[in-house]
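Hi, here's the filled form for the chain we discussed.

Project: internal
Contact: R.S.
Residues: 736
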Amino acid sequence: MAVGVHSAGHHGSRMGLSQVRQQNGSVGTATAWARAMCSVAMAALVATGAQAQQLSYGTNLRGTPGLIDMPSAHSPADAEIGLSYTRFTNTTRSALTFQLTPRLSTSFRYNQLYDIRPGGSGSNRAVFDFVFDRSFSLHYRIMDEGRYRPAVAVGLNDFLGTGFFESEYIVASKTLTPSLRATLGLGWGRFGTQGGFDNPLGILSGSFDARGARTVSNTGGEVDSIEWFRGDAALFGGLQYQINDRTLATVEYSSDAYPFEDGTAFDVKSPVNVAVSYDLYPGLRLTGAYLYGSEAAINLSYNINPKVRRDGNINNTAPLPVRPAGTGAAASWDAATDPQARGLQTATATALSEQDITLYGLTLSGDLARVAIVNDTYRTDSQAIGRTARTLTYTLPNSIARYEIVVMRRNLPVVSATLRRSDLTDLEFDADAAFASYARAGIDTSPAAVPPTADPFPRLDFGIAPFISTSLFDPDSPVRLAGGLSLTGDLDLTPGLRLSGDIRSKLLGNLDDATRRSNSVLPRVRSEKNIYDREQTTLNRLTASYLFRPGTDLYGRATAGYLEYGFAGVSTELLWAPAGRRYALGADLNRVRQRDFDQRLGLRDYTVTTGHLSAYYDFDDGYFTQLDLGRYLAGDDGGTLTVGRRFDNGWNVEAYATLTDVSFDDFGEGSFDKGIRVTIPFDFLTGQDMRRSRPVLIQPILRDGGARLSVQDRLYPLIEDSRTDDLQRTWGQFWR
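And the returned structure, exactly as it came back:
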């Protein structure tokens, strides 16, 4: 959180939210009308027998499932990702929401607030010129809507931030007619400041009657669960009416009195808000609202669901049908007397290239062909294997009855599928072709190597491409960007051995404008990144790496050189990923030294040994978790827990949190390292099959505690989509 103060006064603590009730107890005619509206809505919730209809829904001005400024009980479709931007007087909100499960919504929100009085309206405490505030929210639907019962949800706002928007709620929503929906809820914290009353949970325990207060100087990042659902409570509610298939009208009674904004940022004259939302395009919604009797607001939101694949791949080569045996190829093949071997390899390589697949190696033995391929195009190896198998029915003779197709990654075999040619013919038009073909395939995650068709080494690949670097949530500027050109090159010397480099030249942007000095008490392994960002042309990476298979289900990596922008040294890694299992175990050990700020060849004095033991586990429906325990770059010891969801089309959404033996005070703002990473596949956006993707890291604050080394070709991400369970899950694309 960043703050600026323009008036003198004590600002180390703030008024408890329960105290604000005294300043907002009289709410006038508007409040009486709104309470009557809520009473009517509650009566309708109980009395109506209308069958639930599919009204449109969306996020509120806070970026969470809701009405206008208040929550509702309904939630988006499973896996939906929402982006939201809201602007009204002295307030700007940006939010990212992800429907992690069918019932659980998670939101990250960044607020730019001006003229805030943390002491509450009517106090004599300081007014902050600005506050850049980050907060997290959870919304869980505990009951679905039925014929007579409403949907019910419970939620937490700002439970991991500085507490400006700290609130909890229970809310119910019910569809009354095909076009009308009512919502009624009970809120605490910020949601208990307008027309509040004694907490009804006080009948359970007296501890629910009073609510404590956080201090404004709090750096955030701490879960203050002892205050949840405590202090005054208040009612909120609203009605939503679907005017037509694109237009939604909403009216609500808000229980948030905006105690820190009222009288300074803007005036709260009424708790009633009204809004009209219009769908400009599927997923894109524009909302105009009139808030609190004094303010006009505008909101733009965009929702996308990574579970829904684009309709077709509009620019791709069509897959070949299976060629029936006995037509179009030599009737037999004698591998021992092979006058046409080179011709067959050339024909197969040409045919596969037309399917955007690279032939690495081809050998024949009896009725078996072993074919190694490089898949740089298709999102899943299942699709590449399927296209290769059908291509082989055209280029190989009928005497070859079995195809073992080996997928190569970094010149190493990672998985193979053995298929019978007759099964391809029999199952091509079978109603259950995907399941049946997988059941008959032989999957091996430790296949033997296939000799290359020709000596491919040394092989050089290089290119020039644009790059974008970002710095988010700088206390002095929420967004900083830089763009330029990146010259990358890979020189493969032998199978698994590669020299790799990346030189970047910045052409535009404002990353070099950051001048804030680090105040970290730890070794400054990340908090001085703004100094690294000032350089125009840099050697981002220059390494020699070796990938190998030391045994069955084992993978190894050794990397040396300038590993990343901040550190150079040696990195080693070993991964055990047993076939057919959901789990994998890994270990990495690194000895590194900090690089000079100019990111050329010079090194600084700081040296550290860092490493982790890692455990990976894949759940059903794409959910996964990763636990890393070990030593971080600043010499601190601890662990990182990552939880996420991976989709077959390349989308990946994950959140992580790191706790080490560094105290929250020593860590500084944010208390501990945490973040959200969204990986966006290019083919989802373009309709053109490709394996490339762009990871976007949303990191609330960049500090030194819990910082981990960034090394290219980490083993588990390299092989995760070639494991047996991933092939089985994506085998439906075998016939695409």
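Let me know if anything looks off before we file it.
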